[in-house]
Fold this protein.
Amino acid sequence: MTATTRTRPLSDSATMVRRQFLHMLRYPSLTLMLAGMPIVMLLLFVYVFGGTLGNGLGGAGGGREAYINYVVPGILLMTVASAAQGTAIAVAMDMTEGIIARFRTMNIARVSVLTGHVIGSLGQTLVSIVIVIGVALLIGFRPDAGPMAWLGVAGMLALFTFALIWLSTALGLVAKSVETASNTPMPLMLLPFFGSGFVPTDSMPTALRWFADYQPFTPITETLRGLLFGTPIGNDAAIAVAWCAVIALAGYLWAKQLFNRDPSAT
């Protein structure tokens, strides 16, 4: 194998990543839209429900101050899920508009097409997360995390984002239209509500609590909460990393199989 053959997937992937980042720069409103819904949910839960829910968390002295610190990890995961929906839509648009078919006829490494979408979406999502954290800080979010804890938060969010983007890439490839791709990832946006993102799971009915405790968003939320506020994490970090690895691997294998299938067979 020549050096040119070895490096071509890397150079082609870099070209596709550059294509995605150029889209980000040309259409910054897309990034703002991805952050917009989580910000609206943050303001809604803090200013409309936060007083009552905060009192439930910390007693009469809780209030909005207690609740905003509790809810931000769940909002961050909702930001990731919103970005996953955007990835599925972007992939479906490339598929339905014939760009992917054009790429298949070109002398480029096939892996680079999906890599471009994944890394581009990862960067866009991380920018959206920074925007959401900035808004949260402006309205009273006060974490206790030091530099190393913040590094852990960034790593956990990046790992989860990477996993969910691979899954959403597969969902975009399997969708028959852009409209279908916009709806398929919707359950991912609902899962934070059925976990510990907005209320403690021990306040839920038994059956719902069982689901909430064992779905992937809950250990990831608790890991972020523990890193941000120094509360015990226990096994949640290991479970969170395991969930991310499973989702990423399953999404990658599914996306690869869908992308490499014979177009004439679909």
Notes: Residues 16-261 form one domain. The radius of gyration is 20 Å. Residues 63-96 form the longest helix (34 residues).
